[in-house]
Amino acid sequence: MKNCERIANLALAGLTLAPLLVKVDPNLNVILTACLTVYVGCYRSVKPTPPSETMSNEHAMRFPFVGSAMLLSLFLLFKFLSKDLVNAVLTCYFFVLGIIALSATILPAVKRFLPNHWNEDLIIWHFPYFRSLEIEFTRSQIIAAIPGTFFCAWYASQKHWLANNTLGLAFCIQGIEMLSLGSFKTGAILLAGLFVYDIFWVFFTPVMVSVAKSFDAPIKLLFPTRDTARPFSMLGLGDIVIPGIFVALALRFDVSRGKGSRYFKSAFLGYTVGLVLTIIVMNWFQAAQPALLYIVPAVIGFLAAHCIWNGEVKQLLEFDESKTAAAVSQESSDAKTSKKVE
Question: What torsion do the CA atoms of 268, 278, 167, 251 make, to the nearest 10 degrees?
Answer without folding.
Answer: -10
